[in-house]
Amino acid sequence: MTTNSNNTSQTVYNRDDYLLLSGQSKTSIQWLIAVFTVIFGAWHILTNVFLNEPGLWQNTIHFAGFAILTPIIYSTLPTKHHSKSWAIYIDLAYGLLIASSALWIAGSENRIYEDTLAVTGQPWQFNAMDWIAGGILLWAAIDLSRRIAGWIIPILIILSLGYVFFLGEHMPGVFRAASLPINDILFRTMYNDEGMFGLLASISSTNITLFMIFGGFLIVSGASDFVIEISKLVAGRIRGGAAYVAVISSALTGTINGSALANTASTGIITIPLMKSHGFRGRFAGGVEAAASTGGQLMPPIMGAGAFVMASYTGIPYTTIVIVSVVPALLYFLSVAFIIRIESVKHNVGEGVDMTIDKDKIISGSLTFILPLAVMIYLLMSGVTPSYAVCWSIVSLVLTSWACFAFAKLTNRKIFAKKVMNHVRVSEALMMGMRASILTCILLVAIGIMNNAIVTSGVGNGFSLMIAQWSQGSIVLAILLIALASLILGMGLPVIAAYIIMAILCAPALAGLLMDTVIIGKLVSGITDPIQAAMFSLIDSPHVVKIAEGMSRAEAVELMSIIPFDVAITIRPMLVDAELATTYVLIAHLIVFWLSQDSNVTPPVALAALTAAGIAKSNPMATGFQAWKIAKGLYIMPLMFAYTPLISGNWIEILQIGFFGLFGIYAINSLVQYYAEGPIKLWYIPILLLGITGAFWPIYLLANLVGSGLILIVVILSRRNLANTRIVTLDNG
Fold it and tell me: What is the phi/psi pair of residue 14, to 5°?
């Protein structure tokens, strides 16, 4: 058995072979677990097709099933007992105990309501079994999250419960909160929409798990092979093509699993050796794969589960989030491609090597990749729920596979029959999807405890106030603070968990700062509406008398900076259009989501980079530093979200910003590498800086054209420098 891939504890061992049909012969208990997993996966598909909304029962059954699987897969039994035949029964019994507790809690809801209402003015009425079941579930959230993600989540859970129980009343300032009785804490944790089996659990029981199952079907059907081969076909003969293969394959694989680590591990074992064989340095090859795989989490439609969480928190349609994320994701991958180009020219590698392309894999995998994705996109655009769309995409994949098999039999073309979705492969796909969903399910249910504590106590408002005060109204500084917090939090948490926590704590503050820019503009122009102007009447500032006639921008900024937090919350909806306010909320969440990916590529954490370094056999920290340089789009895009209409504009504005932004991104890469299409000289730097400013200037065509022109001049000059250098080298030779 191997240790947990997260290296969270040396006492946790994986039994991944239990969720595989192939390999060694299985015992009867292993077959029982396999059958249960297949049925459990099928249950997710059926319930999401025939049930409109996930309820408490669906969410608790969802958690109960994964509570059974988690102790089996992530065992904590001592090594000397781990291989014993009875060991699996211990882990299974533990999982069944947790599952039974979850089902008991679900079945007790109506009785608890009735008992409590019958005793007017009394706390929530729990019997002894309710307390036992609730205690087991709280312990399970702590223990299971520790097994799969380390100690950070458990510590945060304990602190959250302690905060609402007794710590809150001892905290200073804005973080002070009234304590709640333990009855209230247990009820809210179990039954509130913000609790264990509320909103976050619904995201897991519907969208995320189904997309993971869909990913399993795509992989088993040969789609992953198709992705690699089609990437070779598209980019294989371009200079640096091996590295472009990594970018394209990771982008396409991101549509399957939405996981940076999974991307790195699955595509990296092919792309990293391929890049090294074409002359790329090991640390650079690992950095490219890590950066590209991180981009897989930014790539619609899954976006590392971020799109589903955003849709649930903001109320913005999932399709809207996916659509506005397409251009930023493309810009990110193109930024990675630019630095590959620069690296190829700078070190004269990646040229003149043809790649062997397996046409059979392209042909056999094309239909089972393209058609199901087309079905899903069509259904999503039709307005159905993501869970409903992905269920029918799975059905279409199976039907496509059967059609290919029938065609192969009729035409004697065996290539189409290689990976037909028979009962064995369907079972493998369901088991693969369930295995991939364990981490997300357990973490989202566990984070529900923290989410409930944050909402109940109001500590999120205190955190938002702190960000507002520290940033002093500066969006750049606020983004920097959020990036730092995300990096620190990502040292111990998976990216999706870090995003959820940061979204709860930081997104409201950032959205507020973005709305304040609109209010500042109105203050400069003057607010003549008496109702809107009256909102400022109680603020102690000499600038209030200028509300009607207008004031300088500096004065407006100063006025907004002294408005109390609770007053600002009241003012913003009155002065900012509701549609625009919703857009700013989306922008804030996207900024937080992009910054939360930082821990994948930034040393000393850099989980994706460390995984890539292991494959590349390169220095981990050097690989992490390369990944950080390559993944600069993680920091560029959030600034573009905040300062340009890249999210809020119409399609003409978005395309204009995206097109000219490419010039700016290339120039930034050139400055980082101190190289363009050839060596750059010191006096090129101010030209590039001016070019970057012009290229990124929002919706100002003249500035965009001038900036892009300046960057092109540097590119031409650098190319001439390279040509001159080669001439000198030949002459000396």
Answer: -90, 140
Q: Six-digit token pair at 398?
A: 């199976």
Count CB-CB contacts under 10 A for residue 161.
21
Domain endpoint, select from 577, 600, 623: 600
Residue 404 · residue 395 · CB < 8 Å: no
Residues 6+ positions from 400 with CB-CB distance below 8 Å: 367, 368, 371, 372
Phi, psi of 22 (to 5 degrees): -85, 175
- Closest-CA residue to 491 (of 80, 150, 217): 150
Domain boundary pick from 124, 152, 180:
152
Question: Are 13 and 144 found together in one domain?
Answer: yes
pLDDT, residue 9, reads 41
- Which pLDDT value is given to residue 664? 95
Pair 58, 140 in one domain: yes
The answer to whether residues 556 and 482 belong to one domain is yes
Q: How far apart are CA 66 and CA 137, in angstroms?
A: 13
Question: Two tokens at 730?
Answer: 């030949």
Category of 472 on φ-ψ map: left (φ > 0), alpha (ψ -120 to 50) or beta: left
For residue 74, give the H/E element and its range: strand 74-75
Interior/surface letters 192-204, b for 16+ CB within 10 angstroms, e for the rest: bebbbbbbbbbbb
**What pTM, to 2 d.p., does this model score?**
0.82
- Structural domain contains residue 605: no
Number of CB atoms found within 10 A of residue 703's CB: 16
User: Could you tell me how many residues make up the chain?
Assistant: 733
Q: How many CA atoms lie within 13 A of 414 on its CB side?
A: 0
SS3 state of residue 688: helix
Q: How far is 430 from 329, CA to CA, in rounded Å?
A: 29
pLDDT at position 2: 37
Q: How many Cβ atoms from other residues are within 10 Å of residue 391's Cβ?
A: 25
Q: How many beta carbons lie within 10 A of that of residue 374, not counting itself?
A: 12
Q: 256 to each of 229, 316, 504, how far by Cα in Å?
A: 16, 23, 27
Parallel/antiparallel/unpaired status of strands 2-3 and 74-75:
unpaired
Is 353 inside any structural domain? no
- Cis peptide bond upstream of 698, omega within 30: no
Domain membership flag for residue 71 = yes
Are residues 563 and 659 both part of a single domain? no
Structural domain count of the chain = 3
Instruction: Output phi, psi for 679, to 5 deg.
Output: -60, 140
Encode 659-698: b = buried (16+ Cβ within 10 Å), e = exposed: ebbbbbbbbbbbbebebbbbbbeeebeebbeebbebbbbb
Query: In this structure, are 692 and 577 located in the same domain?
Result: no
CA neighbor of 264 nearest in space, from 606, 657, 638? 606
Looking at the fold, whether 580 and 690 belong to one and the same domain comes out as no
- Together in a domain, 557 and 667: no
* Residue 666 to residue 434: CA distance in whole angstroms: 41
State residue 52's pLDDT score.
63
In a domain, 415, yes or no: no
Residue 500's closest CA among 513, 510, 486?
A: 486
Nearest CA to 726 among 351, 348, 340?
348
Residues spanned by the domain of 708: 653-733
Q: How many other β-carbons are positioned within 10 Å of the β-carbon of residue 100? A: 15
Q: Are residues 103 and 10 in the same domain?
A: yes
pLDDT along the chain (733 residues), means of 10: 40 65 71 91 89 82 95 77 72 95 94 83 86 96 89 88 88 79 92 90 86 84 76 74 80 68 77 84 91 86 78 86 92 93 86 67 75 84 83 89 79 65 87 87 90 83 76 85 81 76 87 90 88 82 85 87 79 89 93 88 77 86 89 92 92 94 95 90 93 94 95 93 65 53
